[in-house]
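Re: the request from the purification team.
They wanted to know what the chain is likely to look like in 3D before they choose a buffer screen. I agreed to run a prediction and write the result into the notebook, where they can find it.
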Amino acid sequence: MTTTHDDIHYYDIKTRYAGISLIDTGGNGLPVLFIHGNSSCKEIFRHQINRLKGKYRVLALDLPGHGLSANASEPRQTYSMPGYARTVIEVLEKIGINRVVVFGWSLGGHVGLEMLALYPKVVGLMICGTPPVSVGAENVALGFRPGLGLAGKAEFTEEDVKNFVSDTYGANASDEPFIVDAVVRTDGLARQYMFEAFLSPQATNQKLLAETSEIPLAIVNGANDPYINFDYINGLNYRNLWKGEVFNLTGVGHAPFWEASALFNPKLVEFLEGFQ
């Protein structure tokens, strides 16, 4: 099914993992794909879609178990960072994308890092709120601050929803019903199984991917992000870090592109201009 609203096309794409809901602004510009975080949805990128459409072919999708996408038919295989990456790649292949710059936020950034190893059509990656960690629970812990308990919790109480929204999006996020709705809608197994896979010995070494990537890697975080360990992220030995530094935007938290798009969007636009 395809619908169009405000010159933006909405597609339902069938994949082997789940039916995926996709936004595609169309056009001949460089494709730019947005991948949302845990228990979120593609609409969280509203400010970036409106800023970039026309010049770029902007793509944004709901991961399996999120938003308007279906729950996974095989949850254990799908609800992991590699599983999500394979789903995203299948969508891109089905719509004929030949090169793409990816922006991944939080979980979406981890999916983007997975794509570096799986999909040579990625020509640039920007991540936000995404510590690139190596394998094992102890190594994962190095990249984050304590207090990620809700990230892997299957069943959310009303209080959990409230706390997750506030911590993830900032104090005023509850004023946006779609943000709360996205958290409530998310398949609880998507959190549980993703987090279990992230901590397992079979996980991908994303630290190695980030440090050895030959394609440009941009890192733009909110300086007040409650989840991430800044010393860890700032201290990795990146091979091709955009502008040679990690950007930490003052006064914003885990979702700077949403909380302060006027601060964030110029960084994104400048990164994208390098691929024209």
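For the purification team: The beta strands are 2-5, 8-14, 19-24, 31-35, 57-61, 100-105, 122-128, 217-222, 247-249.
Please add any questions underneath this entry.
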